[in-house]
Amino acid sequence: MLPAVVVDSTRAFAYQWIIWRIFGLHPPEGNTFWAQHYQAYGIIINLIANVHVPMSFYIECLLSSNLTEFCETFYLTSVVLVEQVKYFNVWRIRGQLKRFHQILHHLDGRLQHQSERDIVEQHIELVTRIFLGLFRWFVIILTSSMLFVACTAEQELAFPTWYPWNWQRSNRVYLFTVIWQTLSLYSLALMTLSNDTYPMSYMTMVAGHYRALAQRVSMIGHGRESQSLAYEQLIDCIRDHQIILLQRLVSIIQDTMSSVFFYQFACTACSICTFAFYIFFVKVSFSKLLHLFFMFVAIVFETFIICYATEDIGLGAEQLYHAIYACNWLDQSIEFRRTLLLMLNRAQRSVTIVAAHSMPVRMTTFLAVIKTAYSMFTLLNKIKS
To answer: Which helix (H) or strand (E) holds 366?
Structure first.
């Protein structure tokens, strides 16, 4: 008989933690040269990535002289602002995320059947595919921006940003500015990639363990185990459901990401609104239009994956509710049935993540964000008219 494959749910977050190490948020262990000088490195990289790069967008937005220029700069400026908020939130909650990892390791060790391990592995693969897919999309965005710069007849930058020098003074200065902006955009893209995917990754793994627990519950009593053993298995499942999943994992997500979700929704609505205004009322070349289309999809997808992941947790909880009926409770003791009723009562309560401690995060929330963006666009259209 082949040994059971050990599952490590934290593999789903490996890419994010690599990026956070690049940006100075995840110090290496040991007493190596890299570990000794990591703090100085973190200060330098953050001065560039979180001071210089964002300020170039903010100042350009403030220097807008009319509504059209403001819309051209604001859709990206708002994204940069929210990404900074997310970044500092990661810095604030690093310890809680590591505690999250410890709980996941505990849950991984409690997986009893290969079917449960397969469910968790499928969710790890799903998270990895979404991360790599979004990474490729960001590469497409950056490639399209360079294509726009290469195709334009005049000296233009891929994104409207402010620099303390006249970048149109000569071809050499212009080339240096384009290279500098490209490097800045790559650093911003890496930060955005980790910030946008880590909430989805953690919530998807909660949903995966919910489904694995449902699979375990549905198999209770269908084997040759005694009634006492079946009752012990039920108690173990209740402990995972009550103590680990609901009181720890979901609460960590709620406490650490609630406010960030609200900022994300507000940013997406404002960005889509100003983005659409610029597209409809400003004549742009095909290369820039293509580049803006890729940007638009990325901005919308940032909110979509959050709402999708929270919805997935709810579906996982609902699957646990149905799994309770699927176990062989008819052949069990009275004590088993009474305990199962308590678990059923708790499983009937919906699991909902809320933004800003008031707004439920669902797929309907995503539609509400789109509707809000359309309403704001209509208002801007009236102002222009």
So the answer is: helix 363-384
pLDDT band for 266, please (50, 70, 90 cuts). confident
Q: What single-letter amino acid sits at 40?
A: A
How many CA atoms does the CB half-sphere of 86 hold within 13 Å? 27
Phi, psi of 355 (to 5 degrees): -95, 135
Is the pLDDT at 144 greater than 90? The verdict is no
Secondary element (H or E) of residue 18: helix 14-22
Do residues 203 and 310 make contact, with C-beta atoms less than 8 angstroms apart? Answer: yes
pLDDT digits (tens, 9 = 90+) for 339-359: 999 888 888 877 788 887 778
DSSP-based three-state secondary structure for 331: coil
- Retrieve residue 134's tokens: 């979004």
Q: Which two tokens stand for residue 258?
A: 């609630």
From the list 83, 348, 97, the residue with the least C-alpha distance to 190 is 83
Neighbours of 165 (CB within 10 A): 9
Partners of residue 355 on adjacent β-strands: 359
CA distance 187 to 184: 5
184 close to 53: Cβ distance less than 8 angstroms: yes
CB burial readout 213-239, b (16+ within 10 A) else e: bbbbbbbbbeeeeeeeebbebbeebbe
Rounded Cα gap, residues 272 and 223, in angstroms: 55
Residues whose CB falls within 8 Å of the CB of residue 231, separated by 6 or more in sequence, listed in order: 332, 333, 335, 336, 339
> Interhelix angle for 67-109 vs 286-326, to 10°?
30
Nearest CA to 215 out of 231, 243, 237, 247 is that of 237
Cβ count near 320 (within 10 Å) = 26
Please spell the DSSP secondary structure of 189-254, one letter per residue.
Answer: HHHHHHHHHHHHHHHHHHHHHHHHHHHHHHTTTSSS--HHHHHHHHHHHHHIIIIIIIIIIHHHHH
What is the torsional sign of CA 190, 194, 196, 201? positive
Which of 333, 357, 177, 153 lies closest to 253 in space, CA to CA? 357
